Amino acid sequence: MTTKISIVYDDQASKGFITGWGFSAVIEKDDNILLFDAGWDGIALLKNLEIAKFEPKKFSHIIISHKHWDHIGGLNAVLYQTNNPTVFVPSSISSRLKAEITKFAELREVIDVKAEVTSGIWTTPQMKTDIEDLQEISLLIQTKKGIVVVCGCSHPGLDKIIELANEYGKVHAVIGGFHGFEDLNYLKNIDVIIPCHCTKKKNDILVKYPKKSKKCHSGLVVTFE
């Protein structure tokens, strides 16, 4: 089955979409529609979802990569319009945020093992970062050509996330924020590379891999078989 990933929040945008610091993507696979991260501005996120023709009430699952404001800011605005989705979060996020989420959704805490979201989609275990009290999860999607990795900010290190993902199959694509990742040669065996909002070496990646990298922006849609 085809997997479609739509970027709906980024600091770059197609005409008509709203820009903002942060990240959010919608994943469509089989009969499931998932939201990964929620950007910062809930109003902007809802507007972008409307433009992209996504209805929050149809989200079956929401995955929050980590607790930073630019990935959770729009969550409450979306949750108000959902229909009891399952929300996956790192277990290390605050108990208050967990309590708020349970008012609108079923909460699933990701600890030290990967968690199945739905058929062919898993979270990584929560992974440690160099920032005190911050742990992060990424999303692993099985496709015919290999694993598609969707990451929030890659605070644990993009290389460590890819290394972990390779345990479940060859990594075919990586999409999201790569943060301060610098070892660009590490990406040479990956077929599709889409560096998004917080990637410091974004332009360097696009120049080094012009045939297999894409510019990230709200409104971008990528399809995987």
How would you describe this protein?
There is one protein chain. This protein is an alpha/beta fold. 18% of the residues lie in helices and 30% in strands. The strands form three sheets. It has a seven-stranded mixed beta sheet with strand order 6-5-4-3-2-1-15. It has a six-stranded mixed beta sheet with strand order 7-8-11-12-13-14. The longest helix is centred in the N-terminal third of the chain and has 10 residues, at 42-51. The chain is globular and about 45 Å long.
List keywords for this structure.
alpha/beta, Metallo-beta-lactamase, Chain A, seven-stranded mixed beta sheet, six-stranded mixed beta sheet, 15 strands, 225 residues, 6 helices
The percentage helix is 10-25%
Per DSSP, the total helix count is: 6
Mean pLDDT: 97
The secondary structure category is alpha/beta
Strand-residue fraction? 25-35%
Element pattern in H and E: EEEHEHHEHEEEEEEEHEEHE
Strand and helix map with partners:
Elements: E1 3-9, E2 24-29, E3 32-36, H1 42-51, E4 61-63, H2 69-72, H3 75-79, E5 86-90, H4 95-101, E6 106-110, E7 115-118, E8 121-123, E9 127-128, E10 135-136, E11 139-143, E12 146-151, H5 158-165, E13 171-176, E14 192-195, H6 202-208, E15 221-224
